[in-house]
Amino acid sequence: MPRVVVNVMPKPEILDPQGKAVTGALKRLGFQGLSVRQGKRFEIEVEGEVTPEVLAQIAEAAEKLLANTVIESFDVVAD
């Protein structure tokens, strides 16, 4: 079954406390020079072919439900 991935990330101007916590933990473990922003990944299985119409439908679903577009951005990727 084909799969489409929706990646959701905080917008750059939005604080990301989870990402900061992971960045701090990595530094304590000896990983220097890394900066983390934490987001969400949704894998959506599609019945049939992944067409531009299906991608548009998934983008609409992401805008309405999967992402808070006030503070998050998203992209839709055919896997």
TrEMBL record:
It is an enzyme of class 6 (ligase). Pathway: Purine metabolism; IMP biosynthesis via de novo pathway; 5-amino-1-(5-phospho-D-ribosyl)imidazole from N(2)-formyl-N(1)-(5-phospho-D-ribosyl)glycinamide: step 1/2. The keyword Flavoprotein does not apply. Transmembrane segments: none annotated. GO terms for molecular function: ATP binding; phosphoribosylformylglycinamidine synthase activity. HAMAP family: PurS. PANTHER family: PHOSPHORIBOSYLFORMYLGLYCINAMIDINE SYNTHASE SUBUNIT PURS. This is Phosphoribosylformylglycinamidine synthase subunit PurS. The gene is purS.
